[in-house]
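[step 3/7] fold_predict: job queued, chain A
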Amino acid sequence: MKITFALAAFTATVSASAPVFAADIVFSSWGGTTQDAQKSAWADKFTEKTGIKVLQDGPTDYGKIKAMVEAKGVTWDVVDVEGDYAAQAGKGGMLEKLDFSVIDKSKLDPRFVTDYSVGSFYYSFVIGCNADAVDTCPKTWADLFDTAKFPGKRTFYKWSAPGVIEAALLADGVPADKLYPLDLDRAFKKLDTIKLDIVWWSGGAQSQQLLASAEAPFGSVWNGRMTALKSSGVNAETSWEQNITAADSLVVPKGAKNKDAAMQFIALATSAQAQADMATATGYAPINVDAAKLMDPEVAKTLPDQQKASQVNADMKYWADNRDAIGERWYAWQAK
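[step 4/7] structure written:
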């Protein structure tokens, strides 16, 4: 997941009595409530366990990772990235291979495990709506693309990534099992029909603000942001109809200075309890298969992994193989 606002670095609290076994490590993620939860569920617990401070940085920036690796000046030790980027960057020599003698992958959802990455959490693009700002909330992707039935501004993710193109094709009647390879001509033709009514969000916090203020009272957003919005007191309504799943991954950039500690951090972050704590705080699904058993059943049943009736799984391999070509066309279309 990607944002463009700056995030000030801060240092995780560490017990004064905890011994320091290694240098501080730096964890970069997407900011906002998601990174707050990662700090609480993962970084603080890691510091308590090992004495190693975890400095928070961000936002995750793929251009910065490339520049650091090529300059042999890597300052990030563990980074939360989008799953399709992880697959592409691993093949491209940008990442360290993970040490699975330290990280126990036997309990991790195999969909999100590669030689270079493991899942961080997985989420769904859902149709979110501020129910107090409209007469009726859209329930389907076709509704969200229907400006006659649902007039006004709507919000979508700004960046080239799984989600929006799939939503456009589903709205245009493409069956879920026929989405790939993506028909880009058809998708952009459908997107043209609402282009003037789109307000783009570049980060999760912005999507919440757009819905809460009713600047764009409905749109395609990450499910966890709807959880946070509802918790803030907004009358937030979520439609899971054909929710589109994607995942974030944890990676170690090639040449990271604290590789051993980075592996230990990922091992803790992907443990059952850490994943359960993260899922409870965010509404995103855990990638450790034992995590749900440690959660309140009422919370667990609200997560994306329990919304499978019409769920659509974004094809991460397809996106990894076609990421650059899709991105070139996406940004050219936005700029028109």
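[step 5/7] annotate
The beta strands are 10-11, 25-28, 54-57, 78-82, 118-130, 154-157, 198-201, 218-222, 236-251, 312-313.
Residues 10-122+247-306 form a domain with the D-Maltodextrin-Binding Protein; domain 2 fold (CATH 3.40.190.10).
exit 0
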